[in-house]
Design brief:
single chain, mainly beta, Methylamine Dehydrogenase, Chain H, about 0% helix
Length: about 160
């Protein structure tokens, strides 16, 4: 039945913020501990964790090989090697409060409540391809379903499906 909780487990720390799925495990960012955790989905146990590249880890996205992460204190987007937890490279976020992050197979999408905009970012250069106004005033999480972008907003308490074509 839709909406039925199948399973739950305790978060590895007190302020879980974002999740990404890599095909077999979950990744969780936590600004309270400034860490990124890899979690076994069967048991809920932490497989490993590593320090966030900066002090306020927010959005996470998996591109099939590496983890992408945005940080709202550093205003940066990081590409992270999942085997070592080291930063491969980074670039400035499009605006000053990056929170949500999603990967669409070619590009990253980033939501920013400071500008109330959603940005499409070229992963090779870190440049903005395009942006558009958020449907409401406090854009947060993003997810890509293979065709459309999903977005949640904490002021409106709504989830939006957005056509990006």
């Amino acid at each position: 039945m839709a909406g039925t909780v199948i399973r739950s487990f305790a978060s590895p720390s007190a302020q879980p913020y974002s999740l990404a799925f890599d095909g077999r495990t979950l990744w969780n960012s936590d600004p309270g501990t400034d860490r990124i955790y890899q979690i076994d989905i069967a048991s809920g146990t932490v497989i490993r964790s590593f320090a966030s590249p900066s002090t306020s880890p927010r959005g996470l996205a998996f591109d099939g090989r590496t983890l992408w992460h945005c940080d709202s204190d550093a205003d940066r987007v990081y590409q992270i090697d999942i085997a070592s937890g080291t930063v491969i490279r980074s670039f400035a976020s499009p605006a000053t409060s990056p929170l949500g992050l999603a990967f669409d197979g070619r590009t990253l999408w980033n939501s920013d409540p400071g500008t109330d905009r959603i940005y499409q970012i070229d992963i090779a250069s870190g440049t903005v391809i395009r942006s558009f106004a958020s449907p409401s005033t406090n854009p947060r999480g993003l997810a890509f379903d293979g065709r459309t972008l999903w977005h949640c907003d904490s002021d409106a308490d709504r989830i939006y499906q957005i056509d990006i074509e």
